[in-house]
Design goal:
single chain, alpha/beta, Jelly Rolls, Rossmann fold, six-stranded parallel β-sheet, 11 helices, elongated
Length: 469
């Protein structure tokens, strides 16, 4: 019988498999028996255990020494511990594209030792004593429809030295039929969902996340309560929310006000709850319109001060998104991508010989969707700290009129064809116009500190005019 070592310190040990971590558990006992805190969230998080959110507790009772099970990989995380007896545990990484794919690891577990097994790492064990109680917490409910995969315990290439020879072990016929590692089906990563997938930013997200599920308002209404049961959300790792109501002036109308609140606030609150309940990373796109435009540059911690309905609903969406523990809010301005936008409009006017008046007292930088999407992927890939990040293209700020002049010059027309006017002059005599922030420049210090530097907006504009328009 295994001799339990009492009164260990709670401690973690890395293994050769990425994310697979062994823990020493303090067990307190005497000749009467013993006691341990088998799962104590606060203490275990403090020593590095992921906050994986267990929802189910399973117990495997093994009546005889030599019972051997595995190797099974499931689409959820596990925290394995022993209630009685001891096991020889073995694990093999079969996560698709994992840097430690095919790596194996083994260790003996008794009540004083536990292990955290990340999703997709195949798990097996051999009971070293009769009446062994093997227990594990998981962070998703068992489902017959889930993606499972297996690896043969008889595969010599794994290098697992089972203490009881497998010829003498008790193994089920099902476990005997598992494939070798070379024929195993890898566990795919959790999925990515792109909302607003066919808009300007959504199309860029699709380029960077080609395997993502893509939805728009017609295929998934994220502002409806039905969204909570529309998908098996535990299968997702990231939600990229590129959906928004962006008709700034229409948002001031009775119908537009309702639609703006639904798309920019209610829908985001729904996604935030889904992300919270399922440990999903929520990426949400914000705007300079959450500010009144009296400060330059805007930092991430500037208090909200929206001027109109659009800005108010976007601020509400930011607050909702921030409630998800794993969130990135990307605050941006003057977005340019595929589809209708300011640059395309100016190019069309130039080509038709129109000489427009363009506002010169709204100051900021263009943000190209290519850079905005790349910033989001960078934050995800580098596991940067969750929170709000300003993202626009870099460079000296300019007015809309200056941008228009550059477009005209690129089109072979004189810059003087563009007449600078104030915002007040531009909208004189027009009704239903939403107020605009005059200062839209965003401080980029925080996003740059993560290692991401957007292109200069003038260079990006030149590239865009050469390639897209």
């Amino acid at each position: 019988m295994s001799e339990i070592q009492f009164s260990k310190d709670l401690k973690s040990y890395e293994t050769p498999i990425e994310g697979l971590v062994v823990y020493d558990l303090p067990v307190h006992g005497d000749d009467r028996g013993w006691f341990k805190e088998n799962w104590q969230r606060e203490k275990m998080l403090a020593v590095g255990l992921p906050d994986f959110g267990p929802v189910q507790n399973n117990v495997s009772f093994n009546a005889e020494k030599g019972v051997t099970r595995g190797l099974h990989a499931e689409p959820w995380d596990k925290f394995i511990s022993i209630g009685n007896g001891s096991v020889f545990g073995a694990w093999v990484d079969i996560r698709e594209n994992s840097p430690t794919y095919g790596q194996s690891f083994s260790v003996e577990l008794d009540p004083s030792k536990a292990i955290y097994v990340p999703r997709g790492v195949a798990n097996g064990f051999q009971a070293l004593e009769s009446n062994t109680v093997y227990m594990y917490l998981v962070n998703d409910h068992w489902s017959a429809d889930a993606q499972y995969a297996n690896v043969s315990i008889f595969d010599d290439s794994l290098g697992i030295n089972w203490p009881i020879p497998l010829a003498e072990a008790i193994v089920s016929d099902k476990d005997k039929s598992h494939p070798k590692l070379s024929d195993a089906t890898p566990i795919k990563p959790k999925k990515v969902l792109i909302t607003g997938a066919y808009g300007q930013l959504g199309q860029e997200f699709q380029k960077l996340f080609p395997d993502a599920d893509c939805v728009d308002r017609d295929t998934l209404d994220i502002s409806s309560n039905e969204v909570f049961t529309a998908r098996k959300w535990s299968e997702y790792d990231v939600i990229l929310n590129a959906a928004a109501y962006t008709a700034v002036d229409l948002a001031e109308t009775p119908e537009g006000r309702i639609n703006s609140w639904k798309a920019n606030a209610t829908a985001v609150a729904n996604l935030s709850k889904i992300a919270t309940d399922n440990k999903i990373t929520l990426v949400h796109i914000s705007t300079d319109y959450v500010f009144d435009g009296t400060i330059s540059p805007h930092t991430e911690d500037e208090p909200y001060s929206p001027l109109g309905v659009y800005g108010q609903t976007k601020a509400a969406g930011d607050i909702a998104a921030a409630q998800a523990p794993q969130h990135y809010i990307l605050r941006t301005s003057w977005v340019i991508g595929k589809g209708n936008n300011f640059v395309r409009t100016m190019k069309s006017l130039a080509d038709r010989g129109v000489k427009p008046s363009v506002v010169s007292d709204q100051i900021g930088r263009l943000t190209f969707t290519e850079d905005l999407a790349a910033a989001a992927k960078h934050l995800i890939d580098t596991k940067s700290s969750f929170g709000t990040y300003n993202v626009s293209n870099d460079g000296e700020s300019a007015s809309w009129a200056e941008v228009a002049k550059i477009v005209y010059q690129h089109s072979g027309k004189p810059a003087d064809d563009v007449t600078p006017v104030t915002t007040e002059e531009y909208y004189t005599g027009q009704d239903g116009i939403a107020p605009r922030p005059l200062q839209s420049t965003l401080s980029l210090d925080k996003i740059k500190a993560t290692g991401f530097t957007p292109r200069n907006w003038r260079k990006a504009l030149d590239d865009y005019l050469n390639e897209e328009v």
